[in-house]
């Protein structure tokens, strides 16, 4: 793609990076066939190729961006399905990130939208606040039908957040000689609504001889802020997380930082890029990112003690975009479930996005709902009696659509290695 940035603008690191990315695009359009929003609307501006044109025009000019550009760029989920499809290797991930940061800096959004985005940033990334907000949302969810879509969507989503089950079984002692030491980030949304997921992972690791510690004084990784274009806030949170790992290392070097929320893991693996311009933190961020692993990556490399007395169970695997496209992890989750003795069904739509997208389902409810219905139908067609995912956002997006329960991969693997039966399966298995 031809660009026309002047020399002064190219002195800005973000613009220089965007220029390099834009010039790699050859307008072939292969990316459009993989894009979930283009599949819904057929509008070129709702596909990666059209959005790349909009981003070029946005970045080459000063002042408030055109409303058309903001509208269609907001409708990008950042599922990144376009990147594996691109023969030219266009780094759309970082290009849309630059555009979103520019929009956040240069656009004054309508009051209602500013309030909505501000509340999400203030609540979702703080576990204590989110717990309180979820209680109120459940109590007042009946107001949702009379509210405008943009206001009703967050209320509906908050009301669907799982109530935290704090009766989790304790972690067993490390089995045999300790074989490794890993760290977990407590996280924000998942910590507030589904703490049992990380508890299940700790139990599985202990059975395999791995010690797990929780990073102290660090909750949010910054991913939700990054989705909102608040890159500076995301960078500050990244520094907090990196500093927390340094404190954990002081008590004995951590082999890996493990994530059970693939959206968080995708950003944490990208900390090297996020803080590349920070002289004090760039090297530390790169080292940190090299040590981040998704739970499935770590568990697939361990000799897990799977039980062989479990009832037969067909599962439908929902591959989060942040796992399959951002982290390029595809074989490990299904391989682990098959090794545990479960029959794994893969939806015919492949990795098509469910519409969660961090905060996308709250900001673009109509598009997100259409994608969720398509994904739910594809998962149901596999014949699986339970949906398994690896990202809390996707789990919330798919929960309550029919009678099929949704649970996390590590909850299933915990059960398969001697842990308690997941709450989501109790009625299902008792009724079979």
Descriptive overview:
- The protein has helices spanning about 15-25, 35-40, 50-60, 65-75, 80-85, 90-105, 110-125, 125-140, 150-160, 190-195, 195-205, 225, 230-250, 260-270, 270-275, 280-290, 295-300, 320-325, 330-340, 360-365, 365-380, 390-400, 410-415, 425-430; strands at about 180-185, 210-215, 255-260, 290-295, 315, 345, 385-390, 405-410.
- By secondary structure, the protein is of the alpha/beta class.
- Among the domains are: about 10-105, Alpha-helical ferredoxin (Fumarate Reductase Iron-sulfur Protein, Chain B, domain 2, Orthogonal Bundle); about 305-430, 3-Layer(aba) Sandwich (Rossmann fold).
- Helix 22 links the parallel strand 7 (about 385-390) and strand 8.
- Helix 11 packs across helix 23.
- The longest helix is centred in the middle third of the chain and has 20 residues, at about 230-250.
- The model has no long low-confidence stretch (mean pLDDT about 90).
Supply Rg.
Answer: 21 Å
Average pLDDT works out at 91
Shape: globular
Give the beta-strand count.
8
Count the helices. How many?
24
Which CATH class of the domain at 305-430 applies here?
Alpha Beta
User: Gap between N and C termini, in Å?
Assistant: 58 Å
CATH-defined architecture of the domain at 305-430: 3-Layer(aba) Sandwich
Explain briefly what this protein structure is:
The strands form 2 sheets. A 4-stranded parallel sheet has the order 2-1-3-4.
What key phrases describe this protein's structure?
Rossmann fold, 432 residues, alpha/beta, globular, four-stranded parallel sheet
């Amino acid at each position: 793609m031809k660009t026309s940035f002047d020399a002064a603008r190219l002195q800005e690191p973000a613009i220089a990076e965007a220029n390099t990315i834009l010039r790699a695009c050859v307008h072939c359009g292969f990316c459009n066939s993989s894009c979930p929003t283009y599949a819904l609307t057929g509008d070129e501006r709702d596909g990666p190729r059209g959005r790349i044109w909009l981003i070029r025009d946005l970045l080459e000019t000063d002042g408030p961006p055109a409303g058309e550009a903001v509208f269609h760029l907001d409708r990008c989920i950042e599922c990144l399905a376009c990147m594996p499809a691109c023969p030219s290797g266009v780094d759309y991930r970082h290009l849309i990130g630059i555009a979103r940061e520019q929009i956040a800096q240069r656009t004054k959004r309508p009051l209602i939208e500013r309030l909505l985005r501000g509340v999400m940033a203030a609540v979702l990334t703080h576990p204590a606040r989110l717990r309180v907000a979820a209680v109120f949302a459940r109590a007042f969810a009946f107001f949702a039908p009379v509210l405008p879509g943009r206001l009703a969507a967050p209320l509906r989503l908050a009301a669907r957040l799982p109530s935290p089950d704090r009766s989790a079984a304790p972690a067993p002692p490390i089995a045999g000689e300790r074989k490794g030491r890993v760290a977990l980030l407590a996280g924000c949304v998942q910590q507030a609504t589904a703490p049992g997921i990380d508890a299940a992972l700790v139990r599985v690791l202990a059975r395999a001889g791995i010690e797990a510690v929780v990073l102290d004084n660090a909750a949010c990784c910054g991913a939700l802020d990054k989705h909102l274009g608040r890159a500076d806030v995301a960078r500050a949170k990244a520094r907090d997380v990196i500093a927390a790992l340094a404190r954990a290392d002081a008590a004995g070097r951590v082999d890996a930082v493990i994530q059970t929320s693939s959206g968080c893991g995708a950003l944490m693996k990208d900390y090297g890029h996020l803080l590349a311009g920070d002289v004090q933190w760039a090297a530390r961020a790169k080292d940190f990112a090299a040590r981040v692993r998704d739970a499935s990556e770590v568990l697939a490399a361990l000799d897990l003690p799977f039980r062989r007395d479990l009832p037969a169970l067909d599962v439908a695997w929902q591959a989060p975009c942040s796992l399959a496209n951002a982290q390029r992890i595809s074989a490990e989750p299904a391989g682990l479930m098959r090794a545990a003795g479960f029959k794994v069904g893969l939806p015919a739509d492949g990795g098509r996005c469910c519409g969660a997208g961090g905060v996308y389902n709250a900001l673009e409810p109509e598009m997100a709902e259409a994608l969720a219905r398509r994904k739910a139908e594809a998962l149901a067609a596999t014949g699986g009696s339970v949906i398994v995912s690896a990202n809390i956002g996707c789990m919330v997006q798919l929960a309550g659509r029919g009678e099929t329960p949704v649970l996390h991969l590590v909850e299933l693997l915990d059960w398969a290695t001697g842990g308690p039966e997941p709450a989501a399966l109790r009625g299902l298995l008792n009724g079979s």
